[in-house]
Write a sequence for this structure.
């Protein structure tokens, strides 16, 4: 009888949780299931549901922010075209086309970055054994940066990863460093135990300690205005975080020896992954 009463009580609690979840879904607003004096299994269920609700709310806010970001260049394109149509005989069409193309570039950059986020969890079938130093030197040589990049490499740092995505990490971190550096950008490849390390440092203003976790947030970077003439979407660090996580690594930012920001990516060495992977 005691076991029966406990079972009925817990079933009622599950029904209550289901009802609360349904109300949150109907309201389409952020909500959480209130924890009570539940059995460990029920408490764990409520905790997992709340984590999922947090993630869904973040995705919803991210989608809303992206929609706003896309609307801005589209609105600019519309205004430009409408102004040209209102007085077609007095229009400098080369100027009009240039303004339209800037808006198109902005939308295209957003679409590209969103696809990279969606595809960041590449299947390991697409991974290859790569020399991190060679990849870094190749990526740096293909760039035309205003501030020279110093490359410091330890030989034989091998990782198993998707080469195009690791190249995207290097590109994003170097783009970020070039945006804020004054005179110096340095990229270093070395080892730390069973992990490979890739660090990109600059001598710019750095990242305040209170913001060092938030800079990888997809929402945080979108609150900053793009530079004049820039097609940067502000999603580069968020994409980097997604790719690193998919490769079972970690990424963080700290103060560089030069006083600026130093972003460090840590990935498992290929030898540490085992023969099967």
């Amino acid at each position: 009888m005691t076991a029966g009463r406990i079972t009925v009580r817990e079933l009622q609690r599950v029904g209550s949780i289901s009802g609360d979840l349904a109300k949150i879904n109907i309201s389409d607003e952020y909500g959480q299931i209130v924890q009570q004096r539940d059995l460990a299994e029920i408490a764990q269920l409520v905790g997992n549901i709340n984590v999922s609700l947090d993630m869904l709310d973040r995705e919803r806010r991210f989608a809303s922010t992206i929609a706003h970001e896309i609307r801005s260049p589209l609105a600019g394109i519309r205004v430009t075209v409408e102004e040209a149509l209102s007085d077609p005989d007095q229009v400098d069409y080369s100027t009009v086309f240039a303004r339209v193309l800037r808006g198109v570039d902005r939308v295209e950059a957003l679409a590209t970055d969103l696809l990279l986020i969606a595809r960041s969890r590449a299947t390991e079938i697409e991974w290859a054994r790569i020399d991190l130093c060679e990849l870094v030197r190749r990526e740096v040589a293909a760039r035309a940066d205003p501030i020279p990049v110093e490359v410091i490499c330890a030989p034989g740092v091998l990782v198993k990863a998707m080469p195009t995505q690791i190249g995207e990490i290097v590109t994003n971190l170097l783009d970020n460093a070039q945006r804020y550096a004054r005179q110096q950008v340095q990229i270093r490849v070395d080892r730390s135990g069973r992990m490979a390390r890739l660090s990109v440092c600059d001598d710019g203003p750095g990242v305040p300690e209170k913001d060092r976790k938030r800079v990888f947030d997809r929402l945080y970077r979108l609150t900053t205005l793009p530079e004049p003439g820039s097609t940067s979407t502000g999603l580069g660090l968020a994409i980097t975080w997604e790719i690193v996580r998919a490769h079972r690594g970690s990424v963080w930012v700290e103060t560089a020896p030069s006083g600026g920001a130093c972003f460090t990516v840590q990935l498992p060495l290929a030898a540490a992954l085992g023969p099967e992977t």
